[in-house]
Specification:
Order of helices and strands of chain A: HHHHHHHHHHHHHHHHHHHHHH
Radius of gyration of chain A: 23 Å
CATH class of chain A: Mainly Alpha
Number of strands of chain B: 0
Shape of chain A: globular
Number of helices of chain A: 22
Helix content of chain B: over 70%
Distance between the termini of chain B: 28 Å
Strand content of chain B: under 5%
Largest sheet of chain A: none
CATH topology of chain A: Hydantoin permease
Number of strands of chain A: 0
Number of domains of chain A: 1
CATH architecture of chain A: Orthogonal Bundle
Largest sheet of chain B: none
Number of domains of chain B: 1
Oligomer: heterodimer
Structural class of chain A: mainly alpha
Distance between the termini of chain A: 42 Å
Radius of gyration of chain B: 14 Å
C-alpha cells in the first residue's frame, strides 16, 4: 500500500492520515461511481468549521469533497483480474434482476429473441466497457469526477452531479420497492401489480416507509459493513437465482432438458405481450441489455473502477456481471414469473422469489435489494453533497434516504423499471460521449484536450450544448419518428460526439492559441 | 480454523443450489428442497463472513 503523503492532501485528509482509516476509505471506493470514496463516514467526523466553509467558493468546496482522488491512481494500487471479475459479478446480480426478467415476459418477448438478444446485447455492453471506457480510464487513471471537471468545468459538473444524485435516488427507490414486496409477504400485504403506478394500499405505504427507514439508518450507521456483507452475499445470491429457476421448471411442464425449449416458447416467453405493454423484439432485448448500464460504460462512470486496471483489456471482465446477472438471473426470474402467471398468483418480486426458493427466496430479495440500495444511497449522498458540502455525512445520507423512500412509494418505479433504466442511461450518456471525443478526437483535429481546465473555464458551453442538445434531439427523434427510448442511446451518442466536436472547434478557434499553435 | 469455515461455506453453497436439480429430476419434493436451501443459506452466512477478506490490500 502506498499512502498519499500528508502534505499533498486537503485539510480534511490530514485529520485522517492513519493507515486504518485510509484502508477503510479504499474499501468504500469500490461502490462509488460518481464522486467516489472521498469523504466517507470517517471523514464526516471532521467537518470544516462553518466560518471557514462559508468563505470558500463552490468550486473549492466541491474539490474538497473529492480531494482524495485528485491524483491519478499509482501503479502500486493497480488491481489484478480477479478483483474486476468479482466486482462486476457482484454489482450486476441485484434485487432489480427479480424485476427485469419478469418484465421481459410481460413485454411479450419470444424465447429465441430473449436468448439471442441478451447474448448480443450483453456482448455489446462488454465491448463498450472494454473499448470505450477502459482505455481512457487506464490511460488517465482518473475517476469520472476529475476527468469531467477538466473538460466541462466545475459549474457544469455541479449540475451533472445533481442529475446523477436524483437518478441514484430513484434507482435506490426501486430497490426498496423490490425489498418491500418480500417484507410484506408475512403480513399479507396487498402486492402491487405489473400495471400499478401509485401506492395501492396502506400496507404498501407502511412497508415501504419501514424498509426505507431501516435501509437509510443502516446506511448511516455502517456503510462499510454492509458493503462487505454485499460481497459475502454475492455468490450465494447468484446460486439462489439459478436454483429458483431450475426448481420450478418441472411445475411448468419441463421434465427433461429436451422439453425446455418447447415449454419456454409455449409457457414462458410466449411472444404475446400483456395488455398495455409494448411488444419486445430481438432488437428491444439487445438494445436494453446493451444500454441497461449505459451510464457506466458509454457514460464513463466506470472510469472510477477501471482506472485501477493494469490493462484496458480488463474491461472484458464486465462479462462476469453481464452473463451471470444480465443473462442467467434475468432468465431465471422470467421462469419464476411465468409460473406465477400460470398459477394466477402475484407477480411482484417477493412472491415470485418465494415461489422459486421459499424462505431463502425472500431473504435473497431483501438482501439483494438492500445491499444494492446501500451503495446507491451512498453514491447519491456523495453526489448530493455537492449541494451541501458542509453538511455532515449522516445528514446527507438521511436526506437522500428520505427522497429515496418517497420515490419507492410509487410502484411505477419498479414496474416500469425498463423505461426508467433506459432514461437513466440516456440522461447521463452524453457526458461520456464528451469525454470520448475530448480524449480521442480533439487532439487529432488540432484542438486541445481538457480545455476548460486550461482556460480556467467554470462552465464549458460546448459540453453543456452537447448534453442538452443531445437530449432534445433524442426527444425529437422519439416524438417525430417514434423511436422508442430503448434505442435512443445509439443515435444520441453520435449526436453528442458530433455536437461537442463542432462546438469545441468553434470555441477553441475563436478564442486564441491552440495546442498545435503552442507547440509550433 | 479457516479451512474448516471454508468447508462449511462450500457445503452451504452446495445445499443452496444442489437440491434444485434433484427437484428437477423428480427425486426431491419442493418443500424439502426449500428446507435444504434454507439450511445452506444459514451455513453460508454463518461461515463465509469470517473467512472472506474484509478489505483486500489496495483494493479498488
Amino acid at each position: 500500500m502506498t499512502a498519499i503523503p500528508v502534505a499533498r492532501r486537503g485539510p480534511r485528509e490530514r485529520h485522517t492520515a492513519s493507515r486504518g482509516v485510509e484502508r477503510k476509505r479504499r474499501g468504500l471506493e469500490r461502490f462509488v461511481v460518481i464522486a467516489p470514496k472521498t469523504r466517507g463516514p470517517d471523514l464526516a467526523r471532521f467537518p470544516n468549521p462553518p466560518s471557514m466553509a462559508s468563505k470558500r467558493t463552490l468550486t473549492e468546496r466541491l474539490d474538497a469533497i473529492n480531494e482524495y482522488d485528485r491524483q491519478p491512481v499509482p501503479d502500486s494500487r493497480l488491481q489484478g483480474p480477479s478483483s474486476f471479475a468479482g466486482f462486476y459479478a457482484g454489482e450486476h446480480v441485484a434485487g432489480t434482476e427479480f424485476v427485469i426478467g419478469p418484465l421481459f415476459v410481460a413485454q411479450g418477448v419470444s424465447a429465441a429473441d430473449l436468448f439471442l438478444g441478451l447474448l448480443v446485447g450483453d456482448l455489446l455492453a462488454v465491448l463498450s466497457w472494454t473499448f470505450i471506457c477502459a482505455p481512457i480510464a487506464v490511460r488517465t487513471r482518473l475517476n469520472l469526477y476529475w476527468k469531467l471537471r477538466r473538460i466541462v468545468g466545475p459549474r457544469l459538473l455541479f449540475l451533472y452531479n445533481i442529475v446523477n444524485a436524483l437518478m441514484f435516488c430513484f434507482l435506490a427507490g426501486s430497490m426498496i420497492s423490490v425489498a418491500a414486496t418480500a417484507v410484506g409477504i408475512p403480513f399479507h400485504m396487498a402486492m402491487p401489480g405489473l400495471n400499478d403506478l401509485y401506492p395501492n394500499s396502506l400496507g404498501w405505504v407502511v412497508t415501504v416507509l419501514v424498509v426505507g427507514s431501516v435501509v437509510t439508518v443502516l446506511a448511516i450507521l455502517g456503510f462499510e459493513e454492509i458493503a462487505h456483507f454485499s460481497k459475502v452475499a454475492s455468490p450465494w445470491l447468484f446460486l439462489v437465482f439459478v436454483a429458483s429457476g431450475v426448481a420450478v421448471l418441472r411445475q411448468l411442464g419441463v421434465t427433461s432438458i429436451h422439453d425446455f425449449w418447447r415449454v419456454a416458447n409455449e409457457r414462458i416467453w410466449t411472444g404475446v405481450p400483456m395488455q398495455g405493454r409494448v411488444h419486445f423484439t430481438f432488437w428491444h432485448v439487445t438494445f436494453f441489455a446493451w444500454f441497461a448500464n449505459m451510464a457506466m460504460h458509454l457514460g464513463m462512470a466506470d472510469m472510477t473502477i477501471l482506472r485501477f486496471a493494469k490493462k484496458w483489456q480488463y474491461g472484458l471482465f464486465s462479462s462476469f456481471g453481464m452473463y451471470l446477472g444480465h443473462y442467467v438471473a434475468w432468465i431465471a426470474s422470467g421462469i419464476l414469473v411465468a409460473l406465477a402467471l400460470l398459477h394466477g398468483g402475484q407477480v411482484a418480486p417477493g412472491p415470485i422469489a418465494y415461489l422459486g426458493a421459499g424462505a431463502s427466496g425472500l431473504i435473497a430479495v431483501v438482501l439483494a435489494s438492500w445491499t444494492t440500495a446501500n451503495p446507491t444511497i451512498y453514491r447519491a449522498g456523495l453526489a448530493m453533497q455537492t449541494i451541501t458540502p458542509d453538511w455532515r455525512r449522516w445528514k446527507v445520507t438521511a436526506v437522500v434516504g428520505a427522497i429515496t423512500t418517497l420515490a419507492a412509494l410509487f410502484p411505477a418505479l419498479m414496474m416500469r423499471l425498463l423505461d426508467f433504466v433506459a432514461l437513466y442511461g440516456l440522461l447521463l450518456m452524453p457526458m461520456g460521449a464528451v469525454i470520448f471525443a475530448d480524449y480521442w478526437i480533439l487532439p487529432r483535429l488540432g484542438l486541445r484536450q481538457d480545455y476548460a481546465e486550461w482556460r480556467k473555464i467554470l462552465f464549458a458551453w460546448p459540453a453543456a450544448l452537447a448534453w442538452f442538445a443531445t437530449l432534445a434531439a433524442c426527444l425529437l427523434i422519439n416524438r417525430v419518428w417514434g423511436l422508442q427510448i430503448f434505442f435512443l442511446g445509439l443515435p444520441g451518442w453520435f449526436i453528442a460526439t458530433g455536437i461537442y466536436i463542432g462546438a469545441s472547434w468553434i470555441q477553441q478557434r475563436s478564442a486564441g492559441p491552440t495546442l498545435v499553435e503552442e507547440r509550433a | 480454523m479457516k479451512p474448516f469455515l471454508k468447508l462449511i461455506s462450500a457445503v452451504g453453497l452446495a445445499l443452496t443450489v444442489g437440491p434444485a436439480f434433484l427437484v428437477f429430476a423428480g427425486v426431491m419434493t419442493w418443500h424439502r428442497y426449500a428446507t435444504w436451501m434454507l439450511v445452506g443459506t444459514l451455513l453460508w452466512f454463518f461461515s463465509a463472513p469470517f473467512w472472506m477478506k474484509h478489505h483486500e490490500e489496495g483494493s479498488m
